[in-house]
Amino acid sequence: MSQNIDYSKGIYDARQLGAGRMLILGVQHMFAMFGATVLVPLLTGLSVSTTLLCAGLGTLLFHFITKGKVPAFLGSSFAYLGGFSIVAPMLADADGNLAIANTRMLPYACAGVAFSGLVYLAVSLLISTFGIRRIMRFFPPVVTGPIIIAIGLILAPSAISNCQANWLLAFVALGTVIVCNIWGKGMVKILPILIGVLVSYAVALVTGAVDFERIASAAWFGIPLHKEAMGLFAIDGSPEFISALFTIIPIALATMMEHVGDIAAISATVGHNYINDPGLNRTLLGDGLATTLAGLLGGPANTTYGENTGVLALSKIYDPLVIRIAAVLAIILSFSPKFEAVINTIPTGIIGGISFVLYGMISAIGVRNVVENRVDFTNSRNLIIAAVILVSALGFNSVGGLTFAVAGVSINLSGLAIAAIVGILLNAILPGNDYEFDSADGAGAPSSGNLQV
Q1: Which of 24, 207, 284, 337 has its CA 20 to 30 A from that of 387?
Q2: CA–CA distance from 115 to each of 102, 162, 301 (Å)?
Q3: Distance (Å, whole) CA 76 – CA 38
Q4: CA dist., res. 437 & res. 445, Å (int)
Q5: Is the dihedral of CA 258, 259, 264, 266 positive or negative?
Q6: CA 108, 112, 114: angle at the middle one, nearest 5?
Q7: Is 172 helix (H, G, I), strand (E, B) or coil?
Q8: Which chain regions cross the lipid bilayer (predicted)?
Q9: Which of helix, strand or coil describes residue 380?
Q10: Are 151 and 361 in contact (CB under 8 A)?
């Protein structure tokens, strides 16, 4: 039956392909998200298994809330790495490498992630009440672009620190990612991070830089939840909890804009405007609830993945059922500590090489956001807003943020939090805000492309 299928116009019902082909397509989508998704726990100290579980559950929850209409996969967000590096920075091992998880502070960071998901819910409700254009005026590219730029710049020093563990592996990983992105075709261009890790890992095997001891001792089956990172156990009134909220919650302002861009990209790929049907309010709600769930379970924030949009364009199979199959496969993998142990053997130098280009891409996406939306920096208003955001983010971050006491509780505002708050206030106060969001194509929102923010 499948021999007579016309692929040129796209397939919207994958069941006509048969169970075998649908499974293969699901595996392809899982590999597309895999490299970027598992990199986040390696950079933050979170559990790989928990991360895969949260990605799978979050994707299924998103599909339920969007009525199963949107073919999007939700994986780990790189935008929140800046928040994790401030709230729960990785600790140095005996060799001086930043490779030990900060288990004392990780629950607070995850609690911040959980509460940041509630910002999505609030914006979703506001959009349902007042409409998209009126709400999006508070988040124009002149605000979100510089915030995204600052996130990448704040993370840059940690990339160099990781590279110093093994510059050979770092350069191999970095070079492979660049080659795949510039000259790669088809799936090679879509999977640069995964291929970069595999190629540099092969070099690490040859040079004897991989320690297999943890793999042998790991069990084949285990529950992918770890109490020492679950945000649910950190929800209290402590100064650490409150400071984590102020640091991480503002990041949602940038990731929501990325979400809009990704939904617009999926709409253009599939040929259906998902911003209008099932509606941006529903897609934001699904993304937000998935992020809250991940934070409570001890996983990183979720975000819609550009890699999987690339697979949609390549395969022309647009049925969301295929994405849900990938989500189930991710959940199944999350129950294998043996698999997590294999991922944890990736040397620090490789992580450094991947993050070297990745953190730069985060900032570059912010630059692309302001360029594509033609933000006029000859206008003093826009110039002042961008300047204050960048100096606030980088300057206050360099001195440990701003600490003050409220009702006897010490609160620390990170540079990112201050930048987001000041940027939104300046945009609302200063005259001349002429930004108009176009709900027809999602104009004004950055899309993550093939390297995720």
Answers
A1: 284
A2: 20, 30, 10
A3: 8
A4: 9
A5: positive
A6: 115
A7: helix
A8: 21-40, 46-65, 72-92, 104-126, 138-160, 166-183, 190-210, 230-253, 321-337, 349-371, 383-405, 411-430
A9: helix
A10: no
| 271 φ/ψ angles, rounded to the nearest 5 degrees | 90, 30
Q: What percent of the chain has pLDDT over 70?
A: 91
DSSP three-state, residue 237: coil
Contacts (Cβ under 8 Å, ≥6 apart) of 380: none
- Whether the model clears a pTM of 0.85, i.e. scores above it, the answer is no
**Strand runs labelled E in 111-213:** none
| Residue 170 Cα distances to 48, 164, 178, 304, 342, angstroms | 21, 8, 12, 27, 19
Taking each helix axis from N to C end, the angle separating 167-183 and 141-163, rounded to the nearest 10 degrees, works out to 140
pLDDT digits (tens, 9 = 90+) for 267-321: 878 888 888 889 999 999 999 999 999 999 999 999 888 777 777 877 788 899 9
Six-digit token string for 128: 């349902």
Give the Å distances, CA to CA, from 1 to 6, 17, 20, 25.
11, 8, 13, 18
- CA–CA dist 365, 448 (Å, integer): 7
Please tell me the distance from the alpha carbon of residue 165 to that of residue 352, in angstroms, as a whole number.
8
Closest to 388 measured CA to CA, from 419, 412, 424: 419
Of the candidates 195, 251, 239, 237, the residue with the CA atom closest to the CA atom of residue 419: 251
DSSP 201-234: HHHHHHHT----HHHHHS-S------GGG-GGGG
- Given a contact cutoff of 8 angstroms between Cβ atoms, the answer to whether 80 and 251 are in contact is yes
Sign of the dihedral defined by the CA atoms of residues 240, 242, 244, 247, in that order? negative
Give the separation between CA 243 and CA 112, rounded to whole angstroms. 9
**311 exposed, middle or buried (CB, 10 Å; 0-12, 13-18, 19+)?**
buried
As a whole number of angstroms, the distance between CA 160 and CA 176 comes to 18
Tokens at 18, concatenated = 């048969």
Determine how many CB atoms are found less than 10 A away from the CB of residue 108.
27
Strands 409-413 and 402-406: antiparallel
Handedness of CA 229, 170, 247, 371 (dihedral sign): negative
**How many residues make up the chain in this entry?**
453
